[in-house]
Design goal:
single chain, 171 residues, mainly alpha, 7 helices, globular
């Protein structure tokens, strides 16, 4: 299995080929291509399969790495649920959305409790604005390239692990 430094080098090396491939082979516009490339890079550096260990990806979260503790405890390292090409990114996204929402609500509640500033009506107005202006097309335009980048970043990481393990077993 490659070291964190090797994974980082591969992540930075992959930026140009991914961007070029997105533009010339898939005909993505600049924004979609940028979302794809950046989400792939972020996946490899901070949101990848190695969040299930005390890895560089995990440590890069700083104080926020605490949200990944249950993830690390529940899922085994290199399982199909962390390193899987399909389930890995899906589970990480769902887990991240749920835990982020819980932390966000906790912070809003703490602000309400300690500072006596009620932000819940404002949040409700923002949520209603988003719901009223939401279209499926706008959702796809933003999130499809991001999700593809997350899947691609996971694939690069996992395939790098598989190739390194294959050659290590030959020796």
């Amino acid at each position: 299995m490659p070291s964190g430094k090797v994974h980082d080098n591969i992540a930075f090396f992959s930026v140009t080929p991914i961007f070029v491939t997105g533009h010339f082979f898939f005909g993505l516009n600049f924004i979609d291509n940028l979302l794809l490339t950046l989400s792939c890079l972020i996946c490899q550096l901070m949101f990848g399969p190695d969040l299930d260990t005390k890895s560089k990806q995990y440590k890069r979260w700083g104080l926020f790495k605490l949200i990944w503790l249950p993830y690390r405890k529940i899922l085994g390292h290199r399982s199909r649920y962390t390193h899987g090409l399909l389930w890995g990114p899906i589970i990480r996204c769902i887990y991240f959305v749920i835990t982020s929402f819980m932390v966000f609500i906790g912070v809003i509640y703490a602000i309400n409790y300690f500072l006596e500033i009620n932000l819940f009506p404002l949040l409700l107005q923002i949520l209603l604005f988003i719901i009223n202006n939401f279209t499926f097309e706008s959702f796809l335009n933003i999130f499809l390239p991001i999700l593809c980048g997350l899947f691609l970043g996971t694939a690069i990481h996992t395939l790098t692990d598989k190739i390194a393990s294959f050659f290590k077993n030959l020796i």
